[in-house]
Structure to design on (296 residues):
């Protein structure tokens, strides 16, 4: 196997309107960016290191920390948020400053939806989309979320948003974070290496010597509540091929044939035996799909 597989990614900071986006970069520096990878809510770029590293043998991959996550310093004020358009605009800004030909956008959960919204805004900068169990609500629920009389407060009462608000944010050290998450809740199906990377990229030092989550609980909860963007409209505007890998269990993707028909070239596949954490459970399949789309 090529030694590039085992190289650590390079840390990179990209200036965009309003601040800077932190990222990890894999693969040859003399090659244009092949893939931009966008993480799920509450996660970070480093979480997906073992998924993306093997692609570095022949492809150049940029995995970003979204606003309010990881090492990215863009302001993250949850007050009054209604949609993920701020995250979309950050990714649009990133694509606008990257050199080279159009890239594949890939993302998990919220990151997949943000990638779709971005491709609708900048179709000329996107070669293809790989969406890993993206958050796509039923059409009527999306219509309700966009209604002028809604503010996101209703969605903030959802159990998943309330659980985020109650999430413990401060720990004695990184070891305590790892021990607290290992084998529990959403992390039951995660390989230990990916959990260790999630902790390494998602925890920062606090002034008192302890550590805290880089993604504040209030920001994570606001991402669950802010659903007034419209993936159903966005898919109509995307010109590149779209491939959706959908979880069999506990999926956040309610897209089906009706959603696919709205786009020009949309393929939806349900991956047997997977949950919403499909990239952790089937990294081999996701990696093959990324390589196929980037080299098409």
């Amino acid at each position: 196997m090529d030694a590039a597989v085992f190289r650590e990614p390079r840390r990179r900071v990209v200036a965009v309107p309003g601040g800077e986006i932190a990222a990890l970069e894999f693969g040859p520096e003399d090659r244009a960016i092949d893939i931009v990878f966008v993480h799920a809510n509450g996660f970070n770029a480093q979480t997906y290191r073992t998924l993306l590293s093997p692609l570095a043998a022949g492809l150049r991959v940029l995995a970003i920390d979204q606003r309010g996550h990881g090492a990215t310093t863009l302001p993250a004020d949850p007050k009054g948020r209604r949609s993920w358009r701020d995250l979309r605009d950050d990714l649009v800004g990133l694509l606008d400053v990257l050199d080279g030909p159009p890239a594949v956008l890939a993302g998990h959960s919220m990151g997949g939806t943000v990638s779709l919204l971005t491709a609708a805004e900048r179709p000329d900068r996107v070669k293809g989309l790989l969406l890993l169990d993206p958050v796509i609500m039923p059409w009527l629920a999306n219509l309700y979320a966009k209604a002028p009389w809604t503010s996101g407060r209703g969605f903030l009462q959802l159990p998943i948003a309330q659980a985020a608000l109650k999430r413990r944010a401060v720990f004695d050290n990184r070891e305590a974070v790892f021990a607290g998450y290992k084998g529990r809740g959403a992390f039951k199906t995660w390989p230990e290496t990916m959990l260790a990377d999630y902790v390494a990229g998602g925890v920062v030092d606090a002034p008192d010597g302890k550590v805290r989550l880089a993604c504040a609980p209030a920001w994570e909860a606001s991402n669950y509540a802010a659903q007034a963007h419209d993936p159903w409209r966005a898919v109509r505007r995307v010109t590149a091929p779209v491939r959706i890998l959908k979880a069999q269990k506990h999926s956040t993707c309610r897209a089906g044939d009706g959603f696919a028909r709205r786009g020009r070239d949309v393929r939806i596949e349900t991956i047997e035996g997977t949950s919403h954490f499909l990239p952790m459970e089937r990294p081999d399949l996701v990696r093959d799909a990324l390589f196929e789309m980037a080299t098409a």
User: Anything to note?
Assistant: The domain at 3-147+229-295 is CATH 3.40.50.1820 (Rossmann fold). The chain is about 35% helix and 20% strand. The longest helix spans residues 85-97.
